Structures are given as structure tokens and as C-alpha cells.
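Ops channel
N.P.: pipeline sanity check, posting one input/output pair.
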């Protein structure tokens, strides 16, 4: 950026650096500025979708993903699994699975297409099928430590506590400490395992990293055991995100 302050790729990656530093206001402002300056760059719409999702602004995130694939139709797979991770927040499971079918038509074995299919099935009430899919994904891609907490939640929900805890490795915790999504997934796994303090610790970390998806935190069934916990309620109530504005 010192050499070229207008370089889109560098500015886009700065948004993720802002998030990692807990500088969410800067991340939002940078994403909006990029959209104004480079409306025909698909990656700009991707990063705006991420920021909107982390704010719990699902409609704006979905609009940004729609623009992304219109600008660059070759991004169909990325758009499919990112739309599919959003739609279950709104209870739109069938639409999420249809999105994933579109992505799978292009790249059927993409690990994130399969991962978010598993999540959609889990929240749709099919944890056995969800666990089977992620077991296969991790057998084929054992380096994907970031999705192990998701698999752990499936196992825990099915009553396999020991197997679930075995997924929560040091590598997983190291990844979670720098990733807004993995931190939340790890927190959720601990919540299902009845590890209150660890669950709340990683929830706070997820929020510090920019994950302020308050509407989902309030509804996610993985947190049912802590729903009435005063500290959980305090943490979630402290989240204040901008009011969404309509945009063309």
C-alpha cells in the first residue's frame, strides 16, 4: 500500500487485518469505500458480504454476493457456499441446499461446499447425515483444522462427547485465536459440551475479532444451555452494530 495506495487486493486484505485487530469500524469503512471506488471488482463484493454477515446484516450480505456473481460468473462456487452459510440464519434451509447444488454442479468435491451442506443439514435436523459428510471431508482434508469445531458440534449433539472433545486440538485453538468464524464455532462446541467458561471465553474472542452476528447468537440452538446465563446475555447485549441502510 505504501507503493500503491489504490491497489485493490492490498486494501481488501487490510479489511481482514482490521478485523483481526478488533478495528471493526475501520473494516466497515474500508469495505464501503472499496465498493464506491471499484464496483466492478468481484472481490470487493465478497469482502463487503463478509463484513455484513459479521454484523448480522444478512440481506446486505446476500445482495453483495449476488453482485459478486453477476460481476464474475466464474465465482459461482464461492458464492454458493457463502450464500449457503447465510440462508440458514434465516431458516431458509431448502434454499441453502439448492445454492450448494449449484456450486456442486461446478465442483462437487469442494470441501467448503460439503462443509456448509453439512451445517445446513444439521440445523435442518439431520445431524447424522451432517456428521457423515464432515467425517469424509476431514478424512480427505485433515489439514482443515478450522472446520473441526463444526464436526465437534455434530458429534456432541449426537452424544459422542469424547469424540467431540478430541476434535478440539491445540491447532484448532490456535486457528480460532485469529479467525472470527472458527472462534465462534469453537465456542459453540464448548457450549454443547457444557464447558461454560471456555464457551464464553471463545465467544468473547469471536466478537473481538469482528464476529458480531448478534441475531444468530440469540437463536443458535448450540447455545440453548446457556441462553439464560446472565454472562452470556450480557456479552450478546453488548453488541451494537449499524442499522442497515437500503442500497441500490
Amino acid at each position: 500500500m505504501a507503493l500503491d495506495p489504490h491497489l485493490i487486493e492490498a486494501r481488501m486484505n487490510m479489511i481482514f487485518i482490521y478485523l483481526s485487530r478488533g478495528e471493526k469500524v475501520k473494516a466497515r469503512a474500508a469495505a464501503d469505500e472499496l465498493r464506491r471506488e471499484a464496483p466492478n471488482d468481484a472481490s470487493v463484493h465478497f469482502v463487503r458480504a463478509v463484513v455484513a454477515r459479521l454484523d448480522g446484516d444478512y440481506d446486505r450480505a446476500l445482495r453483495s454476493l449476488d453482485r459478486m456473481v453477476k460481476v464474475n460468473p466464474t465465482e459461482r462456487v464461492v458464492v454458493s457456499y457463502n450464500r449457503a452459510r447465510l440462508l440458514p440464519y434465516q431458516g431458509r434451509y431448502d434454499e441453502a441446499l439448492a445454492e450448494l447444488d449449484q456450486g456442486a454442479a461446478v465442483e462437487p468435491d469442494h470441501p467448503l461446499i460439503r462443509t456448509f451442506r453439512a451445517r445446513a443439514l444439521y440445523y435442518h435436523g439431520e445431524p447424522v447425515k451432517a456428521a457423515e459428510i464432515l467425517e469424509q471431508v476431514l478424512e480427505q482434508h485433515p489439514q482443515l483444522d478450522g472446520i473441526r469445531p463444526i464436526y465437534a458440534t455434530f458429534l456432541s449433539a449426537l452424544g459422542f462427547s469424547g469424540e467431540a472433545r478430541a476434535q478440539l486440538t491445540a491447532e484448532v485453538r490456535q486457528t480460532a485465536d485469529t479467525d472470527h468464524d472458527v472462534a465462534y464455532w469453537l465456542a459453540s462446541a464448548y457450549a454443547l459440551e457444557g464447558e461454560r467458561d471456555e464457551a464464553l471465553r471463545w465467544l468473547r474472542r469471536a466478537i473481538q475479532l469482528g464476529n458480531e452476528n448478534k441475531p444468530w447468537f440469540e437463536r443458535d440452538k448450540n447455545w440453548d444451555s446457556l441462553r439464560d446465563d446472565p454472562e452470556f446475555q450480557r456479552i450478546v447485549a453488548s453488541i451494537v452494530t449499524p442499522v442497515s441502510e437500503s442500497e441500490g
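N.P.: looks fine end to end. The first helix runs from residue 8 to 20.
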